[in-house]
Amino acid sequence: METPRRSGPIPVIQQLPVQQPQVDPNQERKERKINTLLSRFTEQGVYDENFAEYEESSCCICLEDFKTAVQGTVGITKVKRCGHMFHTACIKSWLTSSKTILTKDPRCPLCNLSIKEAG
Ligand SMILES: [Zn+2]
Ligand SMILES: [Zn+2]
């Protein structure tokens, strides 16, 4: 007995290849270092109500008040050693433009304390 079938191929949504922007290999290397550094020596969070507990009210890199951020959407990075906080995007670009990331001694943009724990 033959079961009725729909004729024709099932349409498959083809994913278009994503155009990758040209990345400077040195930049990629930096980014990897930065991500490793941030995951080890900082706390990552998003801006929300609990954020009010934190002392700082603005990011010293872009000087923007954290409170102007839309809740739950803006990534915040807190340096574990000194407790200073920045927008994640800001500290990433700061570290990217800074040479310290490649000299293995990245420092907090605010207090210049080495982000890495000693020893
Ligand atoms: Zn910022
Ligand atoms: Zn600091």
Overview of the molecule:
It is a single chain. The chain is an alpha+beta fold and 119 residues long. The chain has a domain at 48-119: Zinc/RING finger domain, C3HC4 (zinc finger) (Herpes Virus-1, 2-Layer Sandwich). It contains two helices and three strands; from the N terminus they run H-E-E-E-H. Strands 1-2-3 form a three-stranded antiparallel β-sheet. The model has no long low-confidence stretch (mean pLDDT 80). Bound molecules: zinc ion (2 copies). One zinc ion is lined by residues 79, 82, 84, 108, 110-111, 113. This is RING-type domain-containing protein.
Note the topology.
Blueprint: H1 25-41, E1 42-46, E2 75-79, E3 85-87, H2 88-97
Bound molecules: zinc ion (2 copies).
Structure described in brief:
This protein has 119 residues and is of the alpha+beta class. It is 23% helix and 11% strand.
Helicity, as a percent range = 10-25%
Strand order of the largest sheet: 1-2-3
Biggest β-sheet strands, sense, barrel: 3 strands, antiparallel
Second-tier CATH architecture of one domain: 2-Layer Sandwich
Q: What low-confidence regions span 5 or more consecutive residues with pLDDT below 50?
A: none
The hetero compounds bound to this protein are: zinc ion
Tags for this entry?
119 residues, alpha+beta, Herpes Virus-1, 3 strands, 23% helix, binds zinc ion
